[in-house]
Design the sequence.
């Protein structure tokens, strides 16, 4: 009954783009690249948990040292983002072949992000099908927000990253996700279990005296570093691109390992490859990228950016008008928004 409820929503319609995607991979290549490796996924999950635990332990062992605490906040915040990436993998049914087990583990992975994997899937599959169009919930939600208006001077983009980092954008970001009807429409059992888990966690924190640790090592990183890293991630995926077709309205970002570790672990930087072939597991996206670069149709058209410093430069220099054209296409404007709000 619960699974029927989930699949009756947007998720039932699948994650395939409604527009035509060029055939750049053979069936054999696609089958091989889409092979689920549950062991790798669970190892990745374990690594992220251990990294967070180590950062917290170091901070606790050197209490009153602000540097080790800030390091812990930074590590935990970026690892929560990474768990979001693994949740994304579960949302595409890429962690376990058994879908019930896949969804259960996906909800566990999602818990530190405060998201429900099932709700995320509903919204995310719409994003895949209707990429950067009027029915793409991500695109439509950000359309009239200045943070996503490009081109943007480098200093202004960095200033907005800082505003996200210090918490000024937290309500906007988390609120837009949790108030989305699609992300809220999840199975009743999942809703009840999540409520029990959150209430139980906070009750245990009060009863056993680790409420301060919960605040310092989960809530603070979640509302600051996670929010800022998530903003950079979203911008890097679909903004400041040419938007001429399916091969250049999503960005693949090739960057040094240390940058990917912080902002796009587990293959999240190969976002174009993911949108073309959402069935490919995150662990095989790098291999898919190497194969696709041997195909002229991809290599000559794909939007590929070198490093996050290259991204900042691109965001400052891409041609203006992208947002205006999108607003016109969606028949939205600021005056209409203001009038509706006043009414």
Sequence:
């Amino acid at each position: 009954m619960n699974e029927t409820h989930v699949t009756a929503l947007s998720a039932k319609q699948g994650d395939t783009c409604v527009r035509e995607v060029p055939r750049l991979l053979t069936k054999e290549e696609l089958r091989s690249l889409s092979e689920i490796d549950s062991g790798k996924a669970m190892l990745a999950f374990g690594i992220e948990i251990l990294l967070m635990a180590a950062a917290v332990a170091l901070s606790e062992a050197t209490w009153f040292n602000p540097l080790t605490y800030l390091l812990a906040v930074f590590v935990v915040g970026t690892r929560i983002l990474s768990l979001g990436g693994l949740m994304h993998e579960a949302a595409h049914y890429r962690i376990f072949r058994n879908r019930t087990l896949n969804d259960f583990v996906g909800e566990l992975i999602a818990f530190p992000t405060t998201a429900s994997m099932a709700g995320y899937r509903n919204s995310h599959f719409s994003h895949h099908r209707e990429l950067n169009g009027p029915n793409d919930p991500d695109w439509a939600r950000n359309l009239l927000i200045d943070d996503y208006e490009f081109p943007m001077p480098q200093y202004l983009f960095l200033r907005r990253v800082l505003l996200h980092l210090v918490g000024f954008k937290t309500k906007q970001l988390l609120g837009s996700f949790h108030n989305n009807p699609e992300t809220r429409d999840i199975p009743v059992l999942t809703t009840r279990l999540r409520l029990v888990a959150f209430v139980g966690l906070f009750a245990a924190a009060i009863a056993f005296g680790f409420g301060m640790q919960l605040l310092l090592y989960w809530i603070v990183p979640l509302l600051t570093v996670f929010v800022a890293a998530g903003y950079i991630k979203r911008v890097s995926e679909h903004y400041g691109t040419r938007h001429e077709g399916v091969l250049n309205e999503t960005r693949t970002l090739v960057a040094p390992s240390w940058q990917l570790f912080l902002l796009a672990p587990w293959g999240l930087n190969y976002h174009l490859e993911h949108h073309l072939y959402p069935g490919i597991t995150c662990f095989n996206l790098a291999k898919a990228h190497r194969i696709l670069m041997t195909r002229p149709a991809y290599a000559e058209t794909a939007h590929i950016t070198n490093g996050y410093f290259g991204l900042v430069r691109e965001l400052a220099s891409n041609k203006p008008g992208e947002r205006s054209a999108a607003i016109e296409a969606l028949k939205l404007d600021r005056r209409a928004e203001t009038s509706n709000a006043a009414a």
